[in-house]
Structure formats: structure tokens, C-alpha cells
Amino acid sequence: MHYVIVGNGVAGITAAFTLRQRDRHARITVIGGESDYFFSRTALMYAYMDRLTLRDMEPFERKTYAQRSIALVRGWAVDLDAARRLLRLATGQELLYDKLLLATGSVPHRAPWPGLDAVREGLVHFVSLEHLAECERLTPSTRQAVVAGGGLIGLELVECLRHHGVEVDFLVRESWYWPVALAAEEGAMIAEHVRAHGVRIHCGHQVSAATADQAGRISAVTTAAGLRLPCQMLGVCIGVRPAVDWLRKVTTPPAIGRGVETGDSFQTSLPGVYAAGDCAEFVRPDGSRLLEQIWYSAKRQGEQAAAAMLGDAVAYRPPLFFNSAKFFDIEYTTVGDAAMLSRDGVRTFYHRLPGRNASIRMVERHGAVTGFNMLGSRWDHTLLERWIDERKPMDEAMRHLHLAQFDGEFGRARLDGARAAYFQNPPECRR
Amino acid sequence: MTKRGTAQRILHDVKNRGLTAWLLSAILTAFYLVLYFTGLLDAPARAIGLDGKWTLYGLLYTLAVACGGVWVSFKYRHNRYQILRTAVVVFIQSTFAFSIPQLLKFFQQPEYYFSYFWPLKLEYLTPSYIFALPLPYVLYSFVGSLLLAPLLALVFGKRWYCSWVCGCGGLANTFGEPWRHLSNKSGAAWKFEQLAIHTVLGVALALTALLFVSWGFGNGNPQLARAAAQFQFFYGLVVASLLSGVVGVGLYPLGGTRLWCRFFCPMAAMLGLVQKLGRFRIAVKKNMCISCGLCSKYCEMGIDVRAYAQAGTSFTRASCVGCGLCAEVCPRGVLRLENRGALVRIQGH
Ligand SMILES: Cc1cc2nc3c(=O)[nH]c(=O)nc-3n(C[C@H](O)[C@H](O)[C@H](O)COP(=O)(O)OP(=O)(O)OC[C@H]3O[C@@H](n4cnc5c(N)ncnc54)[C@H](O)[C@@H]3O)c2cc1C
Ligand code: SF4
């Protein structure tokens, strides 16, 4: 049995380890075009800020792969022939597989703005090692930068640029930072914090055009609202999409929507071919679609896809949503659904904790707590998850909230103020 | 990527085994060699009114801990564990490990360091030395070394000593802060650590036993007394001078700050074994790690914290000194130091 995995990211490597754990004799080959070894994409910003070397970003010692008899092949897959069970790399190398896993991850969305044709230098993304190298190459000759895109990766790039002393204008298209996850209050708190770090954040602004100088280096960005921002670097962080372009051109393309379409068992439309991680798009019998693009989901999917490849009956169901992030110094933990505040039957409680850049938010719908958005202090998400699963009322969650605190010793955030505010003035139900 | 500017480049160089790091390491090593094996430092010590090179060394050491402590407290000012721990370490160094022994000496008392215990300071259970002291010192030494230290380690982990009290740890976590990330994280280094540190512990135990035997029966047996004295001399030379001073501090800029604590300190070895049985652990929040590697990188003991974190398993490692930096640098709040007990309510474990 030969398992071939395209993509040495977290989904691909987790799958490879899981396969090896359960099948000691199979041949396992992992193909990666970007790097020789699996690295943590989430740590890209720490390499940029000199807190980690590229080697430090590798989650496993290099000898691990040989010890587990996992063959690593460097190269880009360019052709797939499902009839012959054959995969071809750009180097010309051909591999015959019994089962194939596509775990190719994401690529950044391209910027659609006019004027970019003339820009030959200064436009950067922040997703791959190649992007990191390009950012590092340009940083020394950059005094001002514009970062477009009010999401997580955009803010990480902003932090890196500030670290290197670059002046940054941060363009957020929406009326506050990251509205898909944060309510207005949280968005405002982050904006205030980001400003304190010397960033000019412009909410409600989006790029309308870019200008280049004679050498082709970007020189300014204009926003739809008429701001003109001189810059030598433009970071485009307007989201990612599955890395499936190459699959459209192969001998036997699988069904592709936004990503590689798979059923709940990770099987694509091609026999023996599976997909997992950022590049996989689940299509449910009821027609609903699911695209998960975070580290945790990629790891989970890699593990379960391997089980499916081993013949287990797998029906992938993502658990309750949770995520984490850090905005400069403010840590963020979210569990469940805490951003959709305008639906009927929703009660929400928001409280700014005293003495630090921290806040808590709880959301309840129809009498059961549905989500938490916590900023600036640490929380044990597993307990919060349990409360949501158990459909606890918000009052009870508030009473027990201290049990879910995960702050370090001596550094526990004080909740008495929040509790007093909650019970003196209980949040009202939205109708 | 290094920040712009010459100063930043030099800083990067000295923190990352560049030329300046080698230079600094050479200077530190030379200083220790001169200190231990020559009398050259006696003259400058007397010139500033001190009674000899060891007092001068104590003064310099305390200054390094205090200045480094101020810097570290500023750097981690948002983290109360770090602030408290640093304050305590600086306090202990400047009192119990420096000014109090000097005062004792001044009042013609024995120069006793209340912040050191056997087997780090082997003298404190060396019969010929300790039984020459007044009874309270003898009691303190026995109770402290054999009862108090292990008991506290059982409850709080070895950190109560290695990161809150000990001067070696104190220097590492203050003056040594810029080099903490240089520790070797490989599995091979871990193997060597287990071998080396337990060997030193074994030797320290054997030597202590021999010294007791020689103290008891040495009078009628001059050969035994001579062997014990020779053994003691070599231990002092290799372990106390070369490994703890020359290697331990001299190699800060090349091998990281806790070389001595991790590979050689018999006290750390003993408390580490106790810690494995005790309540201290690093709790890992399940499924929240993004495998970035900051925790491993900034672990001064070379523990591959990430390996545990990404697997979602809480753990206790014998070598962990509980400095708390992994929890501090983790951008996802995955880690927490804790003493398990009635109050702890970690789920899923
Ligand atoms: C800057 C940044 C920060 C992030 N931070 C977080 C975070 O804090 N938390 C979080 O949950 N998520 C975060 N993410 C998202 C997370 O990194 C991804 O969801 C995760 O890496 C997806 O894993 P994957 O294995 O599916 O794909 P990837 O990690 O993208 O790996 C796929 C690999 O396959 C390679 N590949 C693609 N096509 C081919 C081909 N044809 N042949 C050979 N190799 C190929 C790619 O080059 C890539 O190396 C971040 C992403 C970025 C870019
Ligand atoms: S620092 Fe935190 S997120 Fe990063 S590897 Fe360690 S535990 Fe995981």
C-alpha cells in the first residue's frame, strides 16, 4: 500500500503520522513544494520579528520523519491521473499511489484594484515562506507601508512592520476591526490598542487604486473615501482561498467548487483520492457547504482523513467552533457563536475588565449560552465548550465563570465587577 | 529578520552566537579562571575596601542579578508571576546570599549562606565542616537540606528553589535573560542531561557518604581520610569550580543560561526527582496550540514544550525549573504552571 500526500502542512503531516501509527508497513510519501520540512505557518510573524528562526518553526525534529519511515519529497505536484493512479511533479518525477490525499492548503486572494499592473515591486502577501522572504527583502527600503484587509493575518503583518519601525496605515473595509468575529465594542478596544502601538487604523476605508513610481515600486495607495497614502510596501491581506488552481489543469481533475469537493468521509469525486485541510470543501447531502481554514481544523481533518483512508467509516462533523488569536499584546479566545448579536432571542453581556486591556462577552440565545468572546485574559475553552454543549443559561455561566479562568499564577483577572454589573443590571433579550 | 541599525545588529549578534557572543564568552570564562585559580583579584578587592576576591565576586554577582532583575521586571511588567519571582530572587541574592554572610563575618559569626543547601553546597552536610558550627546552623542545614527543600519541592515543584531562591538560577534569569533561548532542544541533549545530572548526583551522594565514614573512622584509618580528602578536592575542582562557574556562566552566550542547572547541579537533580512525584505540573489546554514553537525556543532548560502542547498533554518534567517563560511567551495562552491540589479543576484530565 502506498499512501501519497500532496502538501506537507499541518493537515498533510498529521495525516501521515496517523497513517503510520495505524499501519506500520505501508509506504508513505509526503510531497511539499514550499519547504523541505513541515513548518508552522502560524509562526510566520515570529520569524519576521526575529523571535524564531525558520528552523525553530519546525514542530518536529527532522529525524522524526525517517524514524517513522515517512518519505519526504520536495517538489510541486502538477499532474494527477486517477485512471493510472499516477501523480507527476514539476521535476518530472512520477509516483504511483494506492491512496492519495490532497492537502495543499491556501493561497492569498489577489488584489483586484486598478493600477496594480504598473506595480512590479512592493506588493506583498503574508501566507508562505516565499512571501516572508519578499517582506524581509523589502522592509529595509520601506519607510511607510499600507496594509489592506481587516482580518487576523493583516494585523499580524502590521505588527511585524511596526516591529521594524515602519509607519503603517491599516485599512479596514468594515466599520470596525474584524466584524465577522468581534462586536463593535471589542473592535473599538482593539483599534485603540493598535493605535497605541503607533498604527494609523482607518476603518471604513478600502483601496480604490494604487500608484507606482518610475521604477515600478509602489508609491501610494488611494482609498475609495479619498485618502491618499504614500507607501513603499502594500500588504494585501484580504483573505485566502483553497490552493486548487493546479488541479483544474490536471489529466483527471476532481470536482472543484471553492475548494476540492469532498463528502463527509473526505473522499473526492475521484476514486482513491481524498482531501483535507484548508483546500477541502465539504458538500453535504442537503447541499450545504463547509470550508474551514484554520490550524485546528486542518489538524483535525488530517487526522480523520487518515482514518478514512485506512478504511474507517468516517463522517466528519466539526466540533463546536473555537479559535484563538493575539492582537499585539491582547490575547483572544472565542468559543461558539459570539458575534451574531442581531438575531432574535439573543441576550448578550459585555464587560470591560478593570485595570487591563481585557473584556468578556457572553451570548445567550433562547435561554442557553451560545458563545464567548474573551479578550486580554486567558480562558480554558474546554469548559466554556462544555457549558454551551450543556445549554447552560447565561446566569449560571456568569456565576461559574471563574472556574474557566486560565490566567497565570498571581495574574488572575478580577471578575467581581463583571459579576456585580451582570446581576444588578441583567442584559435584556433582543426582540 | 533583525531590526534595522547597527546597535540592533550587534544585539542580534551577541544574542545569537555571533562573533560578539564568542568574545563575551571568552571574557566571562577568563574571568572565572582568574577568579578560581589565581589571586589576581585580591588586590582590586582590597583597593575598594573589601576583604578579598570572594567578596568582590559576591558584590559583582549581586549587582548583575539586581541590574538584570530590573531589566527583566520591566520586560515582563504585565506578568505578575515574573515580577514577583524576580523581586524575590533579587532580594534573596542581595540579603541571604551576600549581605547577611558579610554581616555574620563582621560579627565574628560563621559566614553562612541561608539560601544554599546540600547537595548544592556539599559543605553543609560535610561533618567536619558543619559540626564545627554552632548548633542552630547545624539544625538549619540538616532540616533545610533534608526536609524543607524536598518537602517544598513536593508541593510547589523545584521552582520554589531553582527559580525563586537559588543564586545560580537568579543570575540565569536576570543577567542571563538574553541567552535563554540558546539551550539545546534535541532529544540527544535530553538523553545527555539525564545521564550527566544523575551521575553528578550519584557522585555527590557517594562523596557525602564517604566524608561521613571518614569523619567517623578516619582517625584510625589515615588512608581512608586521605582518599576522602582527595575525592573532596577533585569534586570541588571539577563540579564546584569548573562546571558551575567556568562552564555554567562562562558559556552563557554560547550554550544558554542553565547549562549548570540542567546538566550538572546535584540539587536540581534531587529536587527534579522529587518534582516528578509531586504536585507541580505544566497544564496544557487541549487543542489550542498552534505549534509556533515559542515555548520551546524560550525554555532555558531545553524542554521541547511544544511537543507536549501540540499533543495536548499536561506534563511534569524533572528538569523544569518553573520559570514560567513558556506560559509567558505562548501567544495562545495554552500553558499554565500549577500545583495540582484540592483547588485545581482542570478538565479532561
Ligand atoms: C500568517 C498566517 C497566520 C495564521 N495564524 C493562524 C492562527 O493563529 N490560528 C489558526 O488557527 N490558523 C492560522 N492560520 C491558518 C493556518 O495556518 C492554516 O489553516 C493551516 O496552515 C492549513 O493547513 P494545511 O495543511 O491545510 O495547509 P498549509 O499549511 O497551507 O500546507 C499546504 C502545503 O502544501 C503545499 N502545496 C500546495 N500545493 C502544492 C502542490 N501542488 N505540490 C506540492 N505542494 C503543494 C503548500 O506550499 C503548503 O506548504 C494562519 C495562516 C497564516 C498564513
Ligand atoms: S508557544 Fe503556545 S502555541 Fe506556541 S507551540 Fe508553545 S504552546 Fe503551542
Describe what you observe in this structure.
The complex is a heterodimer of chains A (431) and B (349). Chain A has 431 residues and is α/β, with parallel strands linked by helices. Chain A has three domains: 2-106 and 241-309, FAD/NAD(P)-binding domain; 116-238, FAD/NAD(P)-binding domain (3-Layer(bba) Sandwich); 322-424, FAD/NAD-linked reductase, C-terminal dimerisation domain (Enolase-like, domain 1, 2-Layer Sandwich). Chain A contains eleven helices and 26 strands. Chain A has helices at residues 10-22, 44-48, 63-67, 129-138, 152-163, 184-196, 245-248, 295-309, 381-389, 394-400, 416-424, and strands spanning 2-6, 27-32, 70-74, 77-81, 86-89, 94-96, 99-102, 106-108, 123-124, 144-148, 167-172, 199-203, 207-212, 218-223, 228-230, 233-236, 240-242, 260-262, 273-275, 280-283, 289-290, 322-327, 330-336, 346-353, 358-365, 368-375. Chain A has a five-stranded parallel β-sheet with strand order 3-2-1-7-19. The radius of gyration of chain A is 23 Å and the shape is globular. Chain B has 349 residues and is mainly alpha-helical. Among the domains of chain B are: 3-117 and 162-182, no CATH class; 280-344, 2-Layer Sandwich (Alpha-Beta Plaits), CATH 3.30.70.20. Helix content of chain B is 63%, strand content 3%. Chain B has helices spanning 6-15, 19-37, 42-47, 53-75, 80-106, 127-130, 135-156, 159-162, 167-173, 187-217, 222-250, 252-255, 259-263, 266-277, 294-297, 305-311, 325-329; strands at 280-284, 335-339. Chain B is globular. The interface between A and B is large, with 45 and 38 residues. The complex binds flavin-adenine dinucleotide and iron/sulfur cluster (SF4). Flavin-adenine dinucleotide binds at residues 6-12, 31-34, 41-42, 44, 76-77, 103-106, 126-127, 153, 156, 243, 246, 277-278, 293-296, 298, 325 of chain A.
